[in-house]
Design brief:
The structure is a single chain. With 148 residues, this protein is α/β, with parallel strands linked by helices. It has one domain: Protein-Tyrosine Phosphatase, Chain A. Helix content is 31%, strand content 19%. The protein is built from four helices and five strands. The protein has a five-stranded parallel β-sheet. α2 packs across α4 and α3 runs parallel beside α4. The protein is globular and about 45 Å long.
């Protein structure tokens, strides 16, 4: 049975879950916002099946801003591995960079038959820092995976 692996913009995510107060038990959400955004940008409050992160959509710190760091990557990898049997809904502001990096990681490295959001499954804009940090942590958590 396939599991949903959907990437959304913030607006599409809010529309998809309009009127929903808590996620179903078979689903998880990763909500990515820019630091200093309004709290309500995280649609769901933190729970076992919700991961809320705040970092800027940048690959390096040359222009300031809050970078995605190795601690955040560890949180994401651990969260994803703990919930690998669930449907994933991931969003950031535009659904094209930060969230795409996380969806790309899940799709290629977490076992499962994934049903992708047909309107948003192009990973060409995935944030390189986010993606590479996730791979770095994953290679420590599952070192045998890369020895195949």
């Amino acid at each position: 049975m396939s599991k949903k692996l959907y990437c959304y913009s913030f607006r599409d995510f809010v529309d998809r879950f309009e009127g929903v107060e808590t996620l179903p038990e078979d689903s998880v959400a990763i909500s990515i916002c820019t630091p200093g955004s309004h709290v309500e940008y995280h649609k769901f409050t933190s729970a076992d099946n919700v991961l809320n992160l705040d970092f800027d959509d940048i690959d390096n710190g040359a222009y300031g801003g809050e970078l995605f760091d190795i601690e955040m990557a560890a949180c994401v990898v651990d969260f994803v591995m703990r919930h690998a049997d669930k449907h994933f809904y991931v969003h950031c502001a535009a659904g094209q960079s930060r969230s795409q990096a996380i969806v790309k990681f899940i799709y290629f490295y977490i076992d499962g038959q994934w049903e992708l959001n047909p309107h948003n499954s192009d990973y060409s804009g995935a944030n390189r820092r986010v993606y590479n940090s996730l791979l770095e942590v994953f290679s420590v958590r599952k070192p045998d995976f890369f020895k195949k």
